[in-house]
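Review session, final week

We close the course with one last complete record, chosen because it touches almost every idea we covered. It is Serine protease inhibitor Cvsi-2-like, a protein from Crassostrea virginica with 83 residues. Go through it on your own first, then we will talk.
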Amino acid sequence: MKAFVVLVTLIVAAAAENCRETRDCTVTTCSTGSEIHCIDHQCTCTSAAPGSGSCTAASDCSGRCDGGRQHHCIDGHCRCAHF
């Protein structure tokens, strides 16, 4: 039982890697075609959002992200977050 608790703790820690900026994300890995970004102090995988892609705020992004995920404006480009 003790080993199970330790395993669950490690999985939660890896799944919720905290960050102040993207370079702090050393444990989280993303699938092919995705990039890692620090969003709201959590390491998050993102993919390119549909549309023109240029933005200054998330409200500039149009279209829909897969699975109802949220748009984010990162470095002037619309991205879809994958949680």
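Two points worth writing down before the exam:
The beta strands are 35-39, 42-48, 71-74, 77-82.
The chain has one domain: 2-82.
Good luck, everyone.
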